[in-house]
What we know:
mainly alpha; 3 helices; 64% helix; elongated
Amino acid sequence: MTHHIVPIKVYLGVFVALMVLMAATVGAAFLDLGILNNVIALVIAMAKTSLIMLYFMHLRYNSRLIQVFALVGFLFLVILVAGTLNDYFSRGDFSNIAPTLGNPYDPLGQ
């Protein structure tokens, strides 16, 4: 098995790209885009994750079998996040239920 030696310029380029994406994450946090804030934050996070997986985990230079297994693990993570977001976005507005609960420290409801 041969090992691929990655030049320092590639690591510096990935570092600069990660810093730009971090600045984009901070910049997106200050924008009020409603529900798109979560989508934009997740897209930026996936871009950073893919850079880390490709270059720091050396998946770009490994065999196809290792790439497939890493992709399956990443897709499983995406499925878990999508299921969580589906549950979060499908919930109703519970703000009108809270006033009817009363005082939790008063067991008689007075």
